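Field reference: sequence -> structure
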Amino acid sequence: MGYISIYRKWRPQNFSEIVGQDDTVKTLKNAIKTSRLSHAYIFCGPRGTGKTSTARILAKAVNCKEREKDKNHIEPCNICENCISITNGTNVDVIEIDAASNRKVETARDLIEKVNYLPNYLKKKVYIIDEVHMLTDAAFNTLLKTLEEPPEHVMFILATTEPEKVLPTILSRCQRFNFKPISSDSITKKLKTISAKENIDISDAALSLISKYSGGSQRDANVILEKLASLDEDKIKVEDVAALLGAVDFEILFELTNILIENNISEALFFEHRLQESYQNLRIFVEEFLNHLHTLFIIKNYESAYEILNINAEYREKYSDQAKLITNNALHYYIDLFTDLYREIKISEGSKILFRSALIKAVIYNGNDNENKEANVFGSSDEKISVFDREIKDLNLKIIEIQRNLINISNELKEKYENINVNKFEKEELKQSAAVPLKVSSETEIKTGTKENKQAASENKESLKESGTSKGSANDIAAGKIISDWDRICKSLRSKEKGIPLYSQFVETRKLKINNDSILFYLPDNYKFHKESLNKPENLKKIEESIREVTGSLFKVNFFFEGEGKDLTDIKNLTGSMKKTSLSQDRIEEKGKVIEDIDKDEKIKTQIKKQYFKIKEANNQDSDFDYYVNPDEDKIEEYNYLEKKFGIKEKKSGD
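Structure field:
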């Protein structure tokens, strides 16, 4: 007989030789022992994991003549006439069909016609359909009835690498067995047996590298071993495997990691030179190094890491030792750095320059990641703090000047407004306007918020500086930034889809508190509707997006009542006189030149004064709207609020 390939020569011939599928083998052996064999099986799993070999072994075990003599005999004997003919593929009662090349409905119809014929030699006629997912829907539907209720003398064994493409009606008629990828240890053990029998001199490290790059396929590993056996070498070394596969040696990955941990710049430069001289594919090397870093991260942060990692036993101790030497911060930095490098190498040229730059960045990393991040995010250098202080002081002076001007204008307008009279023609209009609380327009509120926020931010900054903490904590700086950017956040929120109702509720926030990466906003205690609406997931998401767009930082947001918190920071810090000024100014602008004629009647003067003080009382309320509790009609409640807040009349059907 001529030369037979290693993967064919070493194909399993009984259940004990099947590698890495212990659960499946145990179940099938018990089914044979108890005579509870199904009429149809489907074997699913990656290539090279033993699906077709297991199907042939099952066909031999069912039809073995030794089993006819002894019912407890489960393994095929491989010496009887039936076993030998099935192994050689010459038995006419074991029909193997390649569905990839026989996928049409005609093949299925031909099978149905012949399935009723009794077997010629064996007890059971076995149909093995490989790559069954390649059959057309018409062919599947033709098989349905026969597959569900075949003759007693027939057994179907289907095999596929893509079970999701098989019709559910087919899957439901078969017993399913999932073949998993074979572990590296199992493949290495099998390769040692084969190399010893075939007189192939190969190092253990080379066998470990073969098992890693076989992807859990014993057949692929056997093929690689056969290629290496053809090399004209005394002994196959790990360098030969790396050269043949374009693979990366484990030792190189450990070496580079140690260089980065030690911050050894000279060794890093020499390592880069050696890598270039070896003509290593840099994309493959970076990919393998990223896998190495991910493995270290899992080992460092998961107690039972080796239960989920496919690593040879001989390397586990080495991985554990190296994981103890590296910090999580360093791992995060290296993973981010080399992930970006991998992405750039895939889409651009100049991979050598990109790799050299990334390696230099990695080797000079000092590990103080938390301090670096705080410096980058909050600008903690003395120069940035001093510039920020000067800007806050300038803004504070401008705000004080604007406050004084507004107070003067307010006093003048108050004096004029108390001395004017209204003619009879405008008397009714003034009464109606006095009956409704005066509202501040959204535009005015945004402008006012700008001054408030800048003033509050400056006061926070000044208080921090006076207490001797000019740099301030991260939370205090973040709170000052949120307050100073309040108007921009509100505008961003208002610009979003359906953002006006949400904005109108959000601006009622009175205080805030920063807790690391969370912002706690506080509403007046009677604003129950606002709190429930703002805490809806979709609204929280919009608010978080607006804050991120303006500040560049990602915060989690939640809303509470003022009574639920302490040590809070005011958002709106205006004095009562300023509020009166802005409201009075809006009132005068709204009425304008309507009041021109003067009525001498003392009775009308008295009515006007009463109406003025009624309006003044309404303007000094903390809330801009009356809160209505109507749990059964949330939408109507929201419309009422919008109508009063912005003068928007919601258009209803029939209007």
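Note: The beta strands are 40-44, 94-98, 125-130, 154-160, 175-178, 511-515, 518-523, 556-561, 569-570.
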